[in-house]
């Protein structure tokens, strides 16, 4: 610069950011923070920080964890022998009153111990015949629940316990 010119120096820190720019740069904390691994597990090929696809919606993660717990039998989890609803031995008896009652007790027991924030609503056994109606295609359950603390109502999870070929 020549000596006769007046020049001004600006500090980048003094400029700041407009409110609308600031708001557009904010991340929605409920959508952006991973809360758990998505199951069934999948590799994350989208450039995220971890090797597996993650869930960022808490309601979806609770449903995923609840479904996995219901499908788990005692002894399947290392160091947590009683984790799970242990429904496998009741599979072919589901649909009878005594078996359904036992399944409900087991689901209540494991839910109150491992996921006490879930309020169980209804239980429905599912016995689906094949297209010809002669054989059994699959056996499962449908459990409806709420999560009052998150205001999640009318949630449902379906578990297929047995599939015939």
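^ Assign residues to that structure.
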């Amino acid at each position: 610069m020549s000596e006769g010119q007046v020049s001004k120096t600006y500090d980048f820190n003094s400029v700041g950011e407009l409110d609308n720019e600031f708001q557009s740069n904010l991340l929605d904390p409920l959508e952006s923070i991973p809360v758990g691994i998505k199951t069934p597990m999948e590799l994350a090929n989208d450039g995220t920080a971890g090797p597996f696809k993650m869930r960022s919606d808490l309601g979806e993660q609770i449903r995923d964890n609840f479904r996995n717990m219901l499908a788990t039998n005692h002894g399947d989890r290392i160091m947590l022998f009683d984790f799970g609803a242990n429904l496998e031995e009741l599979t072919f008896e589901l649909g009878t009153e005594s078996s359904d009652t036992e399944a409900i007790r087991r689901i209540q027991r494991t839910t109150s111990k491992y996921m006490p924030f879930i309020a169980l609503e209804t239980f429905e056994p599912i016995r689906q015949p094949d297209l010809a109606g002669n054989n059994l295609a699959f056996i499962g359950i449908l459990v409806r629940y709420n999560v009052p603390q998150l205001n999640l109502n009318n949630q449902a999870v379906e578990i297929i316990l047995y599939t015939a070929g």
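The chain is about 25% helix and 25% strand.
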